Amino acid sequence: SLLENKMSINFGASLDPYALDNLNRRINTLNVSNGGSLFRVTSARANVSYNISSKDFQRDRDDDTDEDLEDPYSGESYVASSGGRTDDLFGRSNSFNRGSFDRRDPDSVENPVYGTKIPWDLRLQYALTYSNSTRQNDITNHSLMFSGNVNLSPKWRVGVSSGYDIKRQGFTITQLRFERDLDSFKLNFNWTPFGNFERWYFFIGIKSSLLSDLKWENRSQPPPR
């Protein structure tokens, strides 16, 4: 099921048994004695998140048996690393006696580029915050957000985070992320293209913790005020 261990719902609230005076100041009188309810709701928050990734769909495909178990390279779901088909529609790359090549697990074949499977993940989040400590009765935060990553190749990863602020009717902080695995080195570039926190950051350095000081990084400067 796509909902199994994927959705998280959190809710919290703060209650105050004491009342407020006419100037909205907290006083040493119980709210119920002042003609109110037993508790005042001073704040509340709700957060709903949902995670999904390519592995969830891969698990569903792994449950299918019969033809896929007999021949992992058969059917239309598999594409060779060269981009071509493996059946005999336009010829075959191996003989019809189906030697050891056919019996290899497709996941164990080292491949510098992806064929049909591109790993990805996506997180969706809804957040709502309510404030009422001094009778303001205000929704302070009401937003929809998402964050996702796509592995374009085994060494290239691209990510994006953004959202929409329903209360203020504008985008939340939007960030683009680029990551490159250079074997012994790693390269990162993060970019926030617009908004009050517009900035960028570049980093390249050695992976080894012993040589972590061998790096070069640069970042944008804050705009003058």
Write the layout of secondary structure elements.
Elements lengths: L6 E10 L1 E3 L5 E5 L9 E14 H9 L4 H4 L49 E12 L6 E16 L2 E10 L4 E2 L3 E8 L2 E8 L6 E8 L8 E5 L6
Antiparallel strand pairs: 1-4, 2-3, 4-5, 5-6, 6-7, 7-8, 7-9, 9-10, 10-11, 11-12
Structure report:
The chain has a domain at 55-108. The protein contains two helices and twelve strands, in the order E-E-E-E-H-H-E-E-E-E-E-E-E-E. It is elongated, with a radius of gyration of 27 Å. 6% of the residues lie in helices and 45% in strands. The strands form two sheets. Strands 1, 4, 5, 6, 7, 8, 9, 10, 11 and 12 form a ten-stranded antiparallel sheet that branches. Strands 2-3 form a two-stranded antiparallel sheet. It starts with 6 loop residues before the first strand and ends in a 6-residue tail after the last strand. The protein is mainly β and 225 residues long.
Number of strands: 12
Order of SSEs: EEEEHHEEEEEEEE
Strand percent estimate: 35-45%
Low-confidence stretches: 69-104
The major beta sheet can be summarized as: 10 strands, antiparallel
> How much is the average pLDDT?
80
Radius of gyration: 27 Å
